[in-house]
Amino acid sequence: MRLTPRFGTALTVGALAIGVAACGSNSSGGSGASSGGTNNAKEGVKANQVDYGMVYDQTGPTNVSQIPWAHGFLTQIKKANDAGGINGRKINIIAADEKAEVPTGVAAYKKLSTQTPVVGISGYGSSSVQEAVLPLITKDNMPLVGPQSITKEALVPLHKSIFAVLPPYSDQVDVLLGYENKKLGLTAPKVGIFRITAASGIEVDNLIKERLKKNGGTVVSDQEGDPAATSADAQVQKIVAAKPDYIILHTSPPQTASVMKALQKLGAKIPVISTFAGGGPTGYQAVPKDFGNLLEYTAGVTPSDVSVPGNAQLLADATKYGYAKEATNTAFTFGYLSGMAVVQGLKNAGKTLSRASFIKGLEQINGLDTGGISEPITYGAQDHVGLSATRPYKFNYDTGKFEAIGEYSDYNSYITHEYGG
Amino acid sequence: MVEFFQFVIGGLAVGSIYGLVALGFVLIFKSTDVFNFAQGDLLMVGAYLLFTCLATFSLPMIPAILVALAMAALIGVLLQVIVFRPMIGKPLLTVVMVTIALSLIIRSVMQIIYGAQERTLPSRLPSDAFTFLGLHISRLDVIVMAVTAVTVTAFALFFRRSKLGLEMRATAESVEAAVLSGIDANKVFILAFGIGTATAALGGVLMGNLQTVSPQLNALGLLAFPAAVLGGLTSIPGAVVGGLIIGVIQQLSIGYISSTAANVVVYGLLLVMLLVRPYGLFGRPTVERV
User: Fold this and answer.
1) Interface of A with B in 363-392 (CB under 8 A)
2) Average confidence score pLDDT of chain B
3) Looking at the complex, does the CB of residue A16 fall below 8 Å from at least one CB of chain B?
4) % residues pLDDT > 90 (chain A)
5) Which residue of B has its CA nearest to A240?
6) In chain A, positions 241-270, which contact chain B (CB-CB < 8 Å)?
7) From residue A108, how far is each of A141, A304, A338, B108 by CA, in Å?
8) Among A31, A61, A177, A336, which one is most buried in terms of CB atoms within 10 A?
9) Are residues A13 and A113 in the same domain?
10) What DSSP string describes B22-35?
11) From CA B154, how far away is CA A12, in angstroms rounded?
């Protein structure tokens, strides 16, 4: 084989191309707007149809959790359309792939705000992309409902058009620290952190440090990991060497699995508690029971294998629309609730639909019953948080199901509502 | 010092997998002149094939691995016959672009079939750990390193001792001369793709045990690329040594600097290597007569 300059050029071009391909290029899916009598076409509202945007990571490094989120969301939209639509209009979803890349996410927003305009958008679950589009969303007053990951910048100060469904990170960290400290009987815990290399990772990191500084405790090791990394061995080794009382995770489920495997490898039996992001079955399935029992996670929604009326409906809906395999995923549940809030907001907006009336419709949501999947969702003119209540979960290896640790109300006293709500 | 060696052991384990995937790169490149950028995706295919054998067909682990590797080899053969054979004689850049297109297609097809959600293998190779000289060593890491060592030794012997291996080496040196001396070049090309794909799939099988099975496994191909370049694109032992070096450097960088810095170090090394010694540590420089 001859390694000639021509080969070198081709190799370099190839390397660059594969790198770009791995990060992704701009593309969008979903159907375009159809013709028909216009009502408010500049905002995606037509006589018999309303165009609604969905922007999520379809082909990038976080699609593992964002695709189930999208399918949960679509379940509610399909259900509403099958019931005849909302106020005489069918919801037409225009989907775009943000690939967890800022330029791609911004381009998707511009398309949905003007080229194929929509009445509102759900998604933008990649925190870095979300932060990048916030100035545009705020400027245009574009409704953004239920991102899978909601950053501080999206909630503080109050943005008129942004509505969370997931409890904000400040509330999650409040419960996570309060619960773990009480469980272990600690007043000044030594904490190890493993977090994702994204905006939300920095946010969670800062929230933990602020609370420990205020209430007592120290971060003895602070490690980050790429969501596409092959191993977490080195980071976990650093954390274990720092001898923390417990480890806090804010990462993807595959990375949770890597962390648990690394703990098993090092024989380190240290309690681990994760935000919702690293929750779900993957971390538990990755290791045997004696290490899996070290892991707990907090979430604002009840896993679908925990018996509540809302979950029975969720499973039936997921099966009907072909998403049964994803119904056990917490991200699917978040999408399902986000879709529920959007449908209710559109209903409340009435027949004269616009982005402004949709925002008012969302603000009118008061005690939206999720059948026990979460606490009821409530917004107001000055409250766009929606849900704050969060509780811990753990996996029961004997029954093969998740178990809630107490009721949501048991943990409300920990929540400081730093971002509102 | 224990910490340092613990990082090194972790690096050798993941580096072994980078080495296996790089080995696939080299096997195909050495024999067919095709630098297959879809190698990382074929690794992912291997992991999903194992998942299917274990979860859908409930095969025991070892037969499941063998079936997955055989299926991967078959996929490699089909790719050569359907996609790469018509590319023979086409400009190098065209072939590179075809492999990139193939990479995107494979990734999308796997996502359509299996969905984006990560999967955990229903049964796995033993992963408990033991202590040796104060170091925690996972049995799975030992298995990964042993499999890599056996594979590279087998291939080294195959290329040096077997008739087929010698035919592949001859074809790699000059297709025209090989054909004139009676070697069936098409057979060599098919074999190279079959073996190269099975090698990548073996990396996926091991990675599926180390981590989870998800579409993100294809990102490993990007780390095997610097491994192949570092070792030398025409050297079989070089590919594995390159993988081990990349794995160790990556883990030390994460441990002593940061996760983000590890990418800078690894790909910085790739750039330096391409600039200073493009034929790698074990490759041979060639001069083109003009």
Assistant:
1) none
2) 88
3) no
4) 65
5) B3
6) 241, 253-254, 257-258, 261, 264-267
7) 16, 32, 20, 20
8) A336
9) yes
10) HHHHHHHHHHHS--
11) 31
**Do A178 and A283 sit in the same domain of this protein?**
yes
- What is the domain-level CATH number for residue A259? 3.40.50.2300
Based on the fold, state whether residues A340 and A237 are members of the same structural domain: no
Interface check B176 vs A, CB under 8 A? no
CATH architecture type of domain B2-276: Orthogonal Bundle (1.10)
Total tally of structural domains belonging to chain A: 2
Residues of B with Cβ-Cβ distance to A62 under 8 angstroms? none
Distance from CA of B277 to the nearest CA of A (A): 11
Take residue A180 and report the two structure tokens written for it: 């773990």
- State whether residue B184 sits within 8 Å of chain A by CB: no
- Identify the pLDDT of residue A371: 94
A227: nearest CA partner in chain B = B216
pLDDT-derived band at B279 (thresholds 50, 70, 90) equals: confident
Q: What is the mean pLDDT of chain A?
A: 88
Distance from CA of B78 to the nearest CA of A (A): 22
Question: Is residue A124, in this structure, part of any structural domain at all?
Answer: yes
Q: How far apart are CA A235 and CA A259, in angstroms?
A: 8
- Tell me: do A29 and A159 sit in the same domain: yes
β partners of residue A376: none
- Whether residue A198 is found in the same domain as residue A290: yes
In the numeric block, the tokens 């690394």 are attached to: A262
Q: Please give the torsion angle defined by the CA atoms of residues A93, A96, A100 and A103, in that order, rounded to the nearest 10 degrees.
A: -140
C-alpha count within 13 angstroms, C-beta hemisphere, residue A26: 10
Give A 170-229 residues with CB within 8 A of chain B: 197, 223-229
* CB atoms A326 and B117 under 8 Å: yes
**Based on the domain organization, do A82 and A157 belong to the same domain?**
yes
Answer yes or no: do A266 and B129 touch at CB < 8 A: yes
The CA distance from A369 to the nearest CA of chain B, in Å, is 28
Among B96, B141, B215, the residue with its CB nearest the CB of A10 is: B96
State residue B112's pLDDT score.
85
Does residue A28 lie within any of the structural domains?
A: yes
Beta bridge partners of A45: A40, A50
- Tell whether A421 is covered by a domain: no
Cβ within 8 Å, pair A64-B3: no
> Which chain A positions have a beta carbon within 8 Å of B29's beta carbon?
1
Residue A230 domain boundaries: 169-299+396-414
Is residue A51 pLDDT above 50, yes or no?
yes
Q: Give pLDDT, residue B274.
A: 86
Q: Tell whether the torsion through CA atoms of A343, A106, A110 and A134 is positive or negative.
A: positive
Chain B segment 135-174 residues within 8 A of A by beta carbon are: 136-138, 141, 172-173
| Vertex B265: Cα angle to B255 and B249 (nearest 5) | 50
Do A128 and A232 fall into the same domain?
Answer: no
Q: Is A407 within the bounds of a domain?
A: yes
Instruction: Say if residue A407 is in the same domain as residue A280.
Output: yes
